[in-house]
Amino acid sequence: MKLTVATCQFPTDAGIAHNLRYVLRQMQSARERGADVAHFPEAALSGYAGSDIASTAGLDWNALRDATQRVFNLAGELGLWVVLGSTHPLTPPHKPHNSLYIIDDRGRLVDRYDKRFCSGDAEGRTGDLAHYSPGNHPSVFTINGIRCGALICYDFRFPELYREYKRLGVDVVFHSFHAGHASRQWLQESYDYIGRTPARLSGGATLPAITMPATMQAAAAANHVWISCPNSSARESAWASFFVRADGVVTGRLRRHRAGILLSVIDTEAPLYDSTVRWRERALNGILHSGTLVDDARSDERTRL
């Protein structure tokens, strides 16, 4: 089975109308170029609290709802699936969810993924938790016969989420990021923390630039899943959007700080290398070794040569 994914990036901002123009334009372009699904960064439509916007307190919820409906309508007109990063309001005084709307090719909202691991302290005073309520569920949906899942940014730090999706039979993960709009002060602090030698060896001078792409490659190879990784291109952006094949190979990357669309074709029948296929199911079920264990006293005694 095949699926053509458009991994989209643009400079997300505080203006919903600004973001909407990019989303609609890139949806149109993605469909014209043969995409089955357009995938956008974290909080692409609403703006990301703590970065693009100071907080969610000033969000124009009516404008956001109208903009979201326009995305639904265009998805139906184009016959295009859309995975759209935005903010989903809850009943006051609860903070909203940081969400991905899963919109099918008939313009229907078929699911919503809410970011489960929001950064910050346990009291909800810092990071994502100062602005958002965490979610509590995976999201699994099927496009062109291929089972897909969704994750958001900081979720990448928790490999248990990828294992969960693998147990659910997922082959493609739409993992939206926002590692943009970094301040000069934050950048300088990052440069000082990383140092010259690690930056030179890794190719990245900030922790997001080093850890996020590397972890996505590892997650793809360990779980044999394709991963679409869009990021905001708002300066300063840590890295450009990219796509990882199920064997851990990055097959395409956009240019940092430039709006664009990366097209990638997923072929679940392709003969890709998968070194863990023989033992992955056992590992998922808690059998954490390959082969057959032996009953041997010399194996059991671990403090003697």
What are the defining features of this structure?
globular; six-stranded mixed sheet; 22% strand; Nitrilase/N-carbamoyl-D-aminoacid amidohydrolase; 305 residues; alpha/beta
What does this structure look like?
The protein is an alpha/beta fold and 305 residues long. The protein has a single domain, classed as Carbon-nitrogen hydrolase (Nitrilase/N-carbamoyl-D-aminoacid amidohydrolase, 4-Layer Sandwich), CATH 3.60.110.10. Helices cover 29% and strands 22% of the residues. The strands form two sheets. The chain has a six-stranded mixed sheet. The chain has a six-stranded mixed sheet with strand order 6-7-8-9-10-11, covered by helices on one side. The model has no long low-confidence stretch (mean pLDDT 96).
